[in-house]
Amino acid sequence: MRIYYRMRITISTPVKQSVEQVWEGFDEKLFLQLSPPFPPVRLLRFDGCRQGDIVRIELNFFLFHQVWESTIIDHAIGPDESYFIDEASQLPFFLKYWHHRHRIVKQGDDTVIIDDIHFRTPTRITDFLFYPILYGQFLYRKPIYRKVFGC
User: Fold this and answer.
1) pLDDT tens figures, 97-146
2) What is the Cα–Cα distance from 131 to 109, expressed in whole angstroms?
3) Does residue 2 surpass a pLDDT of 60?
4) Distance CA 54, CA 52 (A)
5) At 4, is the pLDDT very low, low, confident or very high (cuts 50, 70, 90)?
6) 73-74-80 Cα angle (round to 5)
7) Residue ranges of domains in the chain
8) Count of beta carbons in the 10 Å neighbourhood of residue 22
9) What phi and psi values does residue 12 have, to the nearest 5 degrees?
């Protein structure tokens, strides 16, 4: 029996809007704003953030392109917490597993956006090599969340 390990990244960003307002703001426009400058991303499909929706992008590494497709496997909307989970069905060669839970959690009068990511690359060594790269890619989102939803 093979045991599958996963690396985990969790980044929290407090914002000033309600859970409902933040949920409504998770749209195609925000998705494009959250994409870091490298690699450039071309959005091929964006259905939304509800179960069964698909998001498909093309990553441009200049000498080659890679497609990444994720399916929203679950979502819930509530007054104190809303979330959606995307899981990859097609990944770039450097990733073998991707599970991203986007949590929007009420905290007092404010809200916290939590990116909770589990991933795996082809080897344990590349997991550790890619960890800081992927962490930086999601850290890039914090000022965008704050600008869009207030801080």
Assistant:
1) 999 999 999 999 899 999 999 999 999 999 999 999 999 999 999 999 99
2) 33
3) no
4) 7
5) low
6) 155
7) 7-149
8) 24
9) -110, 140
- Look up tokens 């404010």; give the residue: 110
Which helix (DSSP H) or strand (DSSP E) does residue 31 occupy? helix 28-34
Lookup: tokens for 141: 């989102």
Cβ-count burial of 98 within 10 angstroms (0-12 exposed, 13-18 middle, 19+ buried)?
A: buried
Taking Cα atoms as reference points, which of 112, 126, 143 lies closest to residue 14? Answer: 112
Among 69, 12, 60, 25, residue whose Cα is nearest residue 40: 60
Query: Quick one: tokens of 72?
Result: 């929203």
Q: How far is CA 14 from CA 18, 26, 38, in A?
A: 11, 15, 25
Architecture field, domain 7-149:
2-Layer Sandwich (3.30)
- The residue behind tokens 């309600």 is 18
